[in-house]
Amino acid sequence: MITLVVRWASLVAIAAGTAGMLFCFPFLFSALHEDLIGAGFPFAGGAIIAGAGLTALSKIVEEEERFMCSLVKWGALTAIGLGVAGMFFCLQFLFSARMADLIGAGFPFVGGAIIASAGLITLSNLAVKKMSE
């Protein structure tokens, strides 16, 4: 029963975190500091929530559940890929002298690092399960 609750809570966390990041993403390209700061914190928070959901889901999925196992593995690989791509995209703006560029690129850079590290932790959880069986 508890695994069912954790599974659904993890899926809701992944969906909510991803939706929050997608909602805040357009505001990160604004020139106004209020938009950048107002969207940056929720963007990083959405990355934390989505990463925590993905990591929690990797801890409870069983090897016999082929679909869920492959879904978690592809979700982790997607998280790593998008996180690293987001970090590389933001890297060029982190060398700017404008404060708006620094704030606008700093939050997505941190969000990308969080998502990529959550993907790596998820893959390591799946690998440990596979090695222990």
Automatic annotation (TrEMBL):
The entry's keywords: Membrane, Transmembrane, Transmembrane helix
Keyword check for Transmembrane: yes
Membrane-spanning segments: 7-29, 41-62, 74-95, 107-128
Protein name: Uncharacterized protein
Record organism: Chitinophaga polysaccharea
